[in-house]
Amino acid sequence: MNIWQVDFYKRPSPNDSEVVWELLACDRAGTVICNETCPQSQANAQWVAAQLQQAAGDTLPDRIQVFRPQSSGILTLVGEQLNVPIEATRRTLALKRELEKRGEIQLKKPPPQALPDRLWGDSWRFVTLPAGELIETFRDRAIPILHTPEDLNPLTLGIASATPIPGIIIYGGRQSMQLARWLQEAQPVAINYIPTVAEESGGLVLEAGLVDRWILVTFEDRDVAQAAQGYNQRLKASQGLHFCLVQPDDSGITDTGFWLLQEDR
Questions:
Q1: Range of weakest confidence among 28-42, 106-120, 241-255
Q2: Where in the numbering of this chain does the RNA-binding protein Tab2/Atab2 C-terminal domain appear (predicted)?
Q3: CA dihedral defined by 75, 78, 80, 83, rounded to 10 degrees?
Q4: Which residues neighbour 250 within 8 Å (Cβ) at sequence distance 6 or greater?
């Protein structure tokens, strides 16, 4: 599939006399396809669509990915004009690398919000599964919500089959399906450990959507904190790959939702 990663952002002009907008598009291999600038007066969907159409020639991409919230609106209009689906996702590694070279990637993330109490389950725990068993374990199960994109398959990432992949199981009880549906709508990206600092509690923060952040749980218990540190260490060995599993209870008979996740890069 031909996928482009596109950003449209404003930056000061060299002489600071006028705001300049820059359009940058690359493929998933990092090859720059389009790099054009325009003044504020021309910064609209029609101009962006024309530049991308010219760069594409007779072969438009099958999909355009965008990670910056401020440009997702205009690129949605561009997608409608070009008849190309737009995907809002943080997983635009090639584009972010190119922007980092230019010093042009700055995203403001809001502080994490509390997860509504009505969504949280009965309990939760840290778990691990060998990379070689991760996909097979859930592939043939009847799971209502299953998110296992191919680019997060351990084999695709080149992770050794014996590598332990860390994860979180949430036992949702009666809220299991409601929680799983909420997670799916929130578009989970990663579950990060926030260590205890001074007198502040540690916890787990869900990174979701383009910039959303949610506090899943906080804890002060020393044993839980040690388990969280182990979870964090395993993330480093697994290229940030991890998972979230929602089940009604700990019987292991029924699964409600499963997501492969990876730290935002």
A1: 106-120
A2: 105-262
A3: -110
A4: 123, 169, 171
Predicted confidence (pLDDT) at residue 198 exceeds the cutoff of 60: no
- Look at residues 124, 81, 108 and name the one whose alpha carbon lies nearest to residue 217: 124
**Residue 218 confidence (pLDDT):** 87
> CB of 170 within 8 A of CB of 244?
yes
Is residue 108 domain-resident? no
Looking at the 3D structure of the chain, how many domains does it have? 2
Is 130 in the same domain as 204?
Answer: yes
Amino acid at 143: I
* Lowest-confidence pick of 109-113, 146-150, 231-235: 109-113
Q: What is the pTM of this model?
A: 0.86
Which of the listed ranges 153-157, 162-166, 172-176, 196-200 does the model predict with the highest average pLDDT? 162-166
Q: Is 46 a member of any domain?
A: yes
* Whole-number Å distance between alpha carbons of 141 and 255: 8
Using a 10 angstrom Cβ sphere, with 0-12 exposed, 13-18 middle and 19 or more buried, the burial of residue 147 is middle
Strand extents, DSSP E, the chain: 3-12, 19-27, 32-39, 63-66, 86-88, 113-114, 123-130, 145-147, 164-171, 188-194, 202-208, 212-219, 241-247, 257-262
Q: Describe the chain by its helix, strand, coil percentages, rounded to 5.
A: 35, 35, 30
Please tell me whether residues 134 and 236 are part of one structural domain: yes
Could you give the 3-state DSSP secondary structure of residue 3? strand
Residues 237 and 137 in one domain: yes
Asked if the model's pLDDT at residue 92 lies above 70, the reply is: yes
d(CA 98, CA 92): 10
- Domain shared by 89 and 122, yes or no: no
How far is the CA of 5 from the CAs of 1, 51, 78, in angstroms?
13, 14, 13
What domain range includes position 190?
A: 113-262
